[in-house]
Write a structure and sequence with these properties.
The protein is mainly alpha-helical. Helices cover about 80% and strands about 0% of the residues. It is built from 13 helices and two strands.
């Protein structure tokens, strides 16, 4: 009887251990599993979803939002929001389109510098002006969009042969997709291996403690906002490559899309916690939903409703994750 009881206890422990391991596996990879599930559902909903042309188009569509979301990810992790990412992208695209006549490289450098300049301005207003990031970047959104419309109220077509070559270059992976992947790879390496990255997460977790520990909080924040602006500048160049034009109203509303995408990817919207690759999986999930709705010819008005619902769910999911983490901390588990 004792042997039978021991066998039963061992089986119970094995079962409990298996369940625990399964929970740990899902907790660490839930976003990727959800992405796989969405791909399966999308393939069932639309037979044309898994075609090479559509998957390539999905990645290209995700590239711009993905590049902007890398910058948004950094700002959110440090405890803020950058509502100017899309407007700065539009401004940079016009700078690039207007100066492409001086050569691709000088025009690209000017466009990226314009984006970085906007980011530095945001950082200075937040750090020196002590203005909340939400308010500072909201103001920059208006400034950047106004400057873009001042430069041109209409899209500026680009006739440079190199732009056409870049747009048509590549097979399954387009140039915008490759640029996005390179940026994510570089950012992931830096976040995993540099002291500055630790400071970013530390400030987002507890700014006061970080300051007492000797972290140069203002300098780190300025660097993060400058990086976000720089990435918006790169996105402006990519926008021109993709659309063959500078677009003053390009990316309208994408600032909220970037926040929703990284929230879907598990980034804590209150700062201090997040994984870049999970955030990028969130970008793919967000764009996949839009892609499937287009394939199914869903009315654009209904698409807006679905996008709004996704944003609400993403924010709610972030709050639930925070509460769950707090509960586990209290219980010591």
């Amino acid at each position: 009887m004792t042997q039978s009881k021991s066998t039963a206890d061992a089986a119970k422990n094995d079962s409990t251990g298996a369940i625990t391991r399964l929970k740990a596996l899902f907790a660490g990879n839930d976003v990727f599993l959800i992405l796989i599930a969405f791909v399966v559902l999308a393939a069932i909903a639309s037979p044309s979803f898994l075609t090479a042309a559509n998957l390539s188009n999905l990645l290209t569509q995700s590239a711009l939002l993905g590049i902007l979301s890398v910058g948004q990810f950094l700002v959110v992790v440090i405890g803020g929001f950058d509502l100017s990412v899309a407007a700065v992208m539009a401004l940079s695209s016009l700078v690039f389109a207007k100066t492409i006549g001086y050569g691709f490289a000088p025009a690209a450098m000017l466009a990226i510098a314009a984006g970085a300049g906007c980011g530095i301005f945001n950082g200075l207003v937040v750090t020196w002006g002590r203005v909340q990031p939400l308010i500072a970047t909201l103001a920059m959104m208006g400034i950047a969009r106004g400057l873009a419309l001042t430069i041109s109220e209409r899209s500026v077509l680009v006739s440079a042969p190199l732009i056409a070559d870049l747009r048509d270059m590549g097979g399954f992976l387009s140039v915008p997709t490759v640029i996005w992947f390179i940026i994510v790879a570089i950012a992931a390496v830096l976040l995993a291996s540099t002291r500055q990255a630790l400071h970013v997460f530390a400030i987002g977790g507890n700014e006061t403690t970080s300051r007492l520990a000797g972290v140069a909080v203002e300098k780190v924040k300025l660097g993060v906002f400058a990086t976000s602006g720089l990435l918006s500048g790169i996105a402006g160049v990519v926008l021109v490559i993709r659309s063959n034009s500078g677009v003053p109203l390009g990316g309208s509303g994408w600032e909220l899309d970037t926040i929703a995408a990284i929230a879907i990817g598990g980034t804590n919207l209150f700062g201090g916690e997040g994984k870049l690759l999970r955030a990028m999986a969130g970008v793919l999930i967000y764009q996949l939903i839009a892609n499937v709705m287009n394939l199914m010819a869903v009315d654009p008005y209904y698409q807006n409703i679905v996008r709004a619902a996704v944003i609400i769910c993403a924010v709610g999911l972030s709050i639930l994750r925070l509460r769950s983490a707090s509960r586990r901390a209290i219980l010591g588990r």
